[in-house]
Automatic annotation (TrEMBL):
Residues 14-149 form the Mycothiol-dependent maleylpyruvate isomerase metal-binding domain. It comes from the Bacteria. The keyword Ubl conjugation does not apply. It comes from Spongiactinospora rosea. This is Maleylpyruvate isomerase. Keywords: Isomerase, Pyruvate. The keyword Isomerase applies. SUPFAM superfamilies: DinB/YfiT-like putative metalloenzymes, SCP-like.
Amino acid sequence: MRRTFEDALVWSAAGTRLFSGAVAGWGEEQYRAPSSLPGWTRKHLVAHVAANADALGNLVRWAATGEETPMYSSAGQRAADIVAGAGKPAAELAAWLCESADRLAAGTAGLGPAQWNAMVVTAQGRTVPATEIVWLRSREVCVHAVDLAADVTFADLPIGFLVALADDIVVRRGDASGPAVVLAAADTGDRWELPGHGVATRVTGPLAEVAAYLAGRPHALTTAPELPAWL
């Protein structure tokens, strides 16, 4: 793994600033515009990111107290929170985004070394140390800052984050359910192999485009085969 806990802390803070900065000053018209995610307006996306901060805050409380606190109370809560948030007025949604991020930052700042090593369970059912919370948040705010369709691109994200994101996605795509692909980042020299069907397609391009491709986002890698969903 080519990322550290300290890296994730930096990326989480940077991604939060990038996401919040992208939506700063928006009114109803901007919030109601489509995001780049099919079927979601920007309101849906902002509500998702705000709800994610609250959900990760539950894991922080789990680590802090030892009391099992799942990210979501039920399988449908995540979707319900997004739908409810998408119906909020712009000012109320902006306040939720800011306040939830502040609550999460305050909660993580209060964890000690032993609490950071406590085991918690993600929404996908993975048991991980609490240190993973900041990586999950950095992934959320950085990738979704691009999904806002507000002139933020993968090229605007930290290089180290993009490498770590590609590493993470390749591990998750390791079930060989898609085509075999060998990816090379021409600008950094990094390389990844996706196991899969058939003879491996070799694809080379900028790191930002490689990361976008792996994440299932629009990219400029014209020879890259289509991949199944990432999450």
